[in-house]
Write a structure and sequence with these properties.
5-stranded mixed beta sheet; about 450 residues; alpha/beta; 6-stranded mixed beta sheet; Alpha-D-Glucose-1,6-Bisphosphate, Chain A, domain 3; TATA-Binding Protein
């Protein structure tokens, strides 16, 4: 009998090193079986149909094969979309009645040696907490009990070679033909899942495309490129005298922009530009996270608009958009949700919608708001003591008073013994001084008291 290890769903599915649990063969097999069993109950069919796709990581084919074996063993059927962006799976599942659920194998912006698994529900998009709990219970049963199920020795899936083309056509159909004609746009595809579809979409809509990092090797995804490293994109925009630049992450759900002067525009900037779009200009409330820049909040307040902050993670943003019936929300990282399109971020669609907004508003320089400087310090702690305790809260309160026009955020990591400190101020040195002092004082308290 195998000894079970805890299966953990984070804010963005299951993720971790690709050579460790739960990405071992036995665990993946049990996970595939669990997805199938959950789907049988969820959709009321003995043969739930999954669409599966992946990014360009070297570990994806092996993970995919094991999951397909497990799903097939309990009666599920699988269609393989090949290498395709995460949001493309979400879009195709929702627009194709044939599928009950979608699976994407990707660790998003992480290095190649990590991987992850995320599911999309055809009806609601994101899985609920109850869905995740059901899958974890099924996994524990399958992982701990020797399987009596017949396993296929082959990859029992139907290849959908036109999946990427269908996604490309679906996206292009949402925009005026040739509306990018005359624009030179640099795209950094991070050697990831957008490497072929992003240049094709922008070219189909009339842009002169200069594509970077479109030669995936399996180990170069996100490697000093993409949305986490937009500096080289900025240099290429200037070198080619381009109008705009966009950088995606490895699975294509994030985007960071660059204007024609080489200035980097993050997700907070893009949200403000999207608020200038005719479809969203009357929006009275935006959803962000605890990390959303104070400058954006100040701008919204000055226009009698509101900002609702959630926990970090697009899952929380999506839940708040649904709860408040709002159209637009996202994170500074570039994960932006346009709810009338998808309940997850699609970097390509967001970039195109941003350009549509720029064309409508004339804001070709992508001007937004005065940013507050943010300083982030992570400290290892011995004890996760209550931050509201009498030995800690006064320290935080005192430092908040030194940044009266800024912001202090102190929170624990959900998975590590780490305290995350973020300070914001108009001047960087004020934010840095406050963060350093706060880190020193809290480290002393948390690492010396039981």
């Amino acid at each position: 009998m195998l000894v079970s290890q805890p299966l953990h769903f984070g804010t963005d599915g299951i993720r971790g090193p690709a050579d460790k649990f739960p990405f071992t063969y036995e665990a993946l097999l049990a996970l595939g079986q669990s997805f199938g069993e959950w789907a049988i109950g969820r959709y009321g069919t003995r043969t739930p149909h999954f669409l599966i796709g992946c990014d360009t990581r070297i570990s994806c084919p092996t993970i995919k094969k094991s999951l397909i074996q497990g799903i097939s063993a309990v009666g599920g059927t699988v269609t393989d979309a090949g290498i395709i962006p995460t949001p493309a799976v979400g879009q195709l599942v929702q627009k194709t009645a044939h599928f009950n659920c979608g699976i994407i194998i990707s660790a998003s912006h992480n290095p190649y040696y990590d991987n992850g698994i995320k599911l999309f529900d055809a009806q609601t998009g994101k899985l609920t907490d109850a869905d995740e709990q059901c899958i974890m219970q099924c996994f524990e049963a399958f992982f701990n009990q020797p399987s009596t199920l017949t396993l296929s020795t082959t990859t029992d899936a139907v290849s959908w070679h036109e999946a990427s083309t269908t996604y490309i056509n679906n996206v292009c159909a949402l925009f005026t033909p040739e509306y990018l004609k005359g624009l030179t746009i640099v795209l950094d595809c991070a050697n990831g899942a957008t490497f072929s579809v992003a240049p094709a979409i922008f070219a189909n809509l009339g842009a002169n495309v200069i594509a970077l990092n479109i030669e995936p090797t399996g180990t170069n995804i996100n490697d000093q490129c993409g949305s986490l490293h937009p500096e080289s994109l900025a240099q290429m925009v200037i070198k080619h005298n381009a109008d705009f630049g966009f950088a995606f992450d490895g699975d294509g759900d994030r985007v960071i922009a660059v204007n024609n002067q080489g200035l980097i525009k993050d997700g907070d900037d893009l949200l403000e530009i999207l608020l200038q779009h005719p479809a969203y200009k009357d929006t009275n409330c935006l959803v962000g996270t605890v990390m959303t820049n104070k400058g954006l909040e100040n701008l919204l307040v000055s226009r009698n608009q509101a900002l609702i902050r959630t926990k970090v993670g697009d899952k929380h943003v999506a839940q708040q958009l649904e709860k408040e019936n709002l159209p637009l929300g996202g994170e500074a990282s570039g994960h932006i949700i346009i709810k009338d399109y998808l309940v997850t971020g699609d970097g390509i669609f967001v970039a195109l919608k941003t350009l549509e907004s720029i064309v409508a508003s004339g804001n070709t320089l992508m001007q937004t708001f005065e940013k507050h400087a943010q300083v982030i310090i992570n400290i290892r702690v011995t004890h996760k003591k209550d931050l509201a305790s009498t030995s800690i809260k006064p320290i935080i309160d005192q430092h908040e008073q030194t940044l009266a026009s800024g912001r202090v955020l102190v929170r624990y990591s959900g998975t590590e013994n780490v305290l995350r400190i973020m300070t914001e101020a108009l001047q960087h040195d004020h934010a840095q001084t406050c963060a350093s002092s706060l880190a020193l004082h809290l480290s002393n308290v948390l690492n010396t008291e039981a």
